[in-house]
Amino acid sequence: MEINHQILYNTLIKMVIPVIAGFVVAKAGVVKGDFAKKLSTLILFVCQPFMLLTATYGARYSDSLLTKGLIALLCGFLAHVIIAIIGFSGTCFFKDKKKGRIIEHCIVFGNCGFFGFPVLQAAFGDVGLFCGGFFVVAFNTVLWSYGMIIIGRANREMKIKLTKIFFNAGTVPCVLGLILYVLRVPTYAPVYDSMKMIGDSCTPLSLILIGIMLARVQFKSYIKEYSAYYGMALKLFLTPIVTGVIMKLLGFSDFFTLVSALMMALPTASSTAMFAETYDLHPDIAAQTVGVSTLISVVTIPPTMLLVQKIIDLI
Question: Fewer Cβ atoms within 10 A, N terminus or C terminus of the chain?
Answer without folding.
Answer: C
